[in-house]
Amino acid sequence: GVGAGGRGIQLMVSVKPGKVHSVRTLVDPELISSEFIPDHSFVVHVSSSSVLDLLESHEDVVYVSRMHPHWKHTPTLLEELYKEQKSSRSSSSSPPPNSPEAVQDIHRDAGDGSDTLVTLDITCITPTAEEKARKWTRELGTGFTPVNDYIVRMHLPTDGTGLEMILTRLREDEHVHWFEPRRQPKILNEANAQIVQGGTTSSSPTKIWDMGINGQGEVIHIHDSGLDLTHCFFSDDQADFDTFCRTCDYTYAYVEVQSQAATSHATMRNNVCSAAWWTNGYYLSQTFCPDPANTTNCFDYRSSSVRTRKDIFEESLSYAEGGAVERFLSTEQVRAAFCGNYSLTSAYGYSGATAYSCALAESNDLSRWDRAWVKTMASITEDPTQSYGHFTLRTSPRPCTFSGTACTTGDSTQRKVKAYWAFADNTAALDSHGTHVSGTAAGVAADPNSGLNEYKGMAYNASIVFSDAMVGDSGNVLIPMDLGVLFKWGYNLGARIHTNSWGAAINSYGSLARAIDTFMASYDDALVLFASGNDGDRGYGSLGTEANSKNALVVGAGSSPLEYQNRVALNASRQYHRWGLYNQICNTSVLSSRNQDTFRAINDAILFRCGSSSVFGSPTSMTAFFCDGTKIDSEANWNTYACQVQDLSLSITCRDRALRALNFVALGDTDATSVSARVEVRADGNDEETTPPGVLNTIKISIFEMCGRNKNAYLYSENAAGRIGEYHMATFSSRGPTSDGRIKPD
Known about the structure:
Helix content is 32%, strand content 14%. The model is unreliable at 1-6, 87-117, 183-190, 300-304, 385-389 and 664-699 (pLDDT under 50). The strands form seven sheets. It has a six-stranded parallel beta sheet, sandwiched between helices. Strands 5, 6, 7, 8 and 9 form a five-stranded antiparallel beta sheet that branches. The chain is globular. By secondary structure, it is of the alpha+beta class. The protein starts with 8 loop residues before the first strand and ends in a 26-residue tail after the last helix. The protein has 24 helices and 23 strands.
């Protein structure tokens, strides 16, 4: 039947272990007409007898057969769906995820608010999912919507009308590879407890918990970036935590300085106050087009053309949005203006000696003049964001002795956190690293019936004593001069486990490793754990300093199997980037200064690609265009839309295609107005003609990641190279050996 009427057939191909990718790409190089079937098989649609001959004669092929219709779903699918329909009809509301009533975790979705639906995902090949969705909706009388290029979602009425007929048609369709109930997405940390205890997430293998080992009676000491005590995993219904240990804080050993910011600002002030600095010739650091709509009037950094800084600023100002065109400024006008600006102690709500620099780096309400200056700085390799402080050790650290019950005995009345040493401070950024680490280790909600307890930590009945390692969100991990002091504080409060997800990225046995070994040698009943590090991409010997400790238990990470990364991790990444784009553009509650900057950047990109007639008049009109129910905010179409933008598809508008030139940021917080947002131009060299010059830069979340096709191809290449799977280290996880040749991580 191969090639009959040009229709082709589906084949099930089983191969030797480890040969799926090599054989599959041999017959389907673009991976568009085949589908992987765990563990060593794939389905492929073929229309040529020569492909069949190739498979049957290939040394790595074990079995080739025409695809049987009943192989396209699990044997229990029909039973599952009937149970689900019965459950849906018996209740007007959905049961909690993972409850016994939520049979097989099948997802319910009230599509239009009028009825409960059972949702089926159907994986297909050419023709596209969009074409199949239209055809099936027309022929089968129920709703089908494309999810992406190869998945169609079917919303099945709960009355069971035509269920068996529909499934029969799907089985017999030569373009259908597989269909299954859509599963309720879960927070990925949920599976950690099962994976650690049983190596799999199936059948809830909680072997350690089943033995009664859940942290009861234990105290864990965690040193990290700050713990959100209002999070329900740590909060106490009876009383707020307010007894912080405040003696022996970091000021006994460190001095916080702002020399970097002050030095950078002072250097720039000296530059702009000099007339010669403005008139000296300058080689551009990047292609500079003062008018985004006129790409013929550009200055190429790769050429030998020299411009003065005054010329570059003047041209930027001429084409900055708003206001009259200004030309032929004198050097003195520019020098005097910026010399005065850099001498201000108050600018755009910022105060202090570096006020103007801070405003350039963070304000979304800059004047036309200052917006042009930011654009100029990008062209001459000057960074307006140099405003970070750092810490230096005191030349003579002062001695310190803990005093007060908050430091020496803690608060035994608290449910979870018994003590909090405000070594750096006692604050935690939203979704802070310390909150994540603490939740993974011992977090649990006070209410035993809370749905969030599906994600409780490994030692959920343990108590926590916490020491704060970071001032605000500075990124600097602070520790006492003697690391042993840190562990002894926790030990004296009852902790025998000390877990640390931080470290210096230097593979050497130094004073920190020795301090860990000394502490553990002195306290036989204590166990110190350290992460191996996040520098696995550097290859072997990429451990951190603390991971060189001989006595500490050093923990690395294995890689997830390819199937899991594609099914779960890749989709989570796509959703995350989609959320970032949605929060930038579609969330009308944050149409404020944050979206104003995004609005300007999108208009710059559209002006460059499409011309002035296509730019948006307001952020509200931008939201109405990109969030019209068919694009970013469409549950069914957002992934397809992102891939259309990546492909510069002619089926979308010029405005849509302009998004390809930009990377967007999601700041990871619900209070989207709390941090200024910026947008970055793509700089991969592959799409220069679509990249508008001079767009404000810093943060990035890419619509390419929202599509996910590039990441999918990368995963397959990594798998083919033998770098993915539970028998391989995760890419980020630092590798041994230690500097003296010992095997780590443990």
